[in-house]
């Protein structure tokens, strides 16, 4: 599983008190320190226990090395040793108070340990330092939900949507969808949701995959869960309206369309869909008004 620790561990420099007295740049049997850490990062993907062994060897040679400690915390967390991970992450968070990635990982582990109010504090600090952390926003939404604050959770999930535009995994899935490699896109999105079940962006994309495969009930279930978590996710609500229309549920579709139009009155796709739904229920006069307005605004 890709982790924040594997993304930005290297830039951290140890505080003066934690720096090794000898400049140990090479770990015996593994090459350079950077190579040893890179090897441990790769092992985290498949064998966190073996990664932990590698990191213990690094720390034997370079005691207190912050990137190694951080990766070791990730290895412990992946093995279910949440207390052991916190023993490492809490001092790191104190030593590096402006490091968003450490705060994010601390919040993740606190949330998994059921310490949700503390998790909220850590995650709020992380996204204050670095707002462009979509998975930190998602985890903050999870922690706020568990802490009994659904309104704040909805806002956090909305930020998750906002900051997911450059997510490499989601972009890869989107590319697969554009190229009509639907089985590949579905596999990628299911893997993502297995790792992050509340990832509302991945959920909406998987619903689109289901709709393309004419699995409308699956699409509806995914979109309903998505909107339960992120009620202001307009793109998901518009998708929900479309699937309701295809499922011959015009009144429910109209209700969703009107919710989108209350926020974006000029949403051409929703206006077009509303006209189509009105035609389905025999309400032709307002449908004609909508179509006329669309032709006027979009003559091509």
Keywords:
300 residues; mainly alpha; two-stranded antiparallel sheet; 17 helices
Describe the structure.
A hairpin with a 3-residue loop joins strand 1 and strand 2. This protein has helices at 5-8, 33-46, 48-61, 66-78, 82-95, 100-112, 116-129, 134-146, 150-162, 168-178, 182-195, 200-212, 216-229, 234-246, 250-263, 268-280, 284-297, and strands at residues 26-27, 31-32. Helix 7 runs antiparallel to helix 8, helix 8 (134-146) runs antiparallel to helix 9 and helix 15 runs antiparallel to helix 16 (268-280). The chain has 17 helices and two strands. Residues 1-11 and 14-30 have low confidence and may be disordered. The two termini are 47 Å apart. The chain has a two-stranded antiparallel sheet. It has 300 residues and is mainly alpha-helical. It is elongated and about 80 Å long. The longest helix has 14 residues, at 33-46.
Indicate the percent of residues in helices. over 70%
The class by helix and strand makeup works out as mainly alpha
Strand order of the largest sheet: 1-2
Give the integer mean of the pLDDT values. Answer: 88
Strand content: under 5%
How far apart are the termini? 47 Å
Q: Profile the largest sheet.
A: 2 strands, antiparallel
Uncertain spans, ≥5 residues at pLDDT below 50? Answer: 1-11, 14-30
Count helical runs.
17
Strand and helix order: HEEHHHHHHHHHHHHHHHH
General form: elongated
Please state the CA-atom Rg, rounded to the nearest Å.
Answer: 24 Å
Number-wise, the strands total: 2
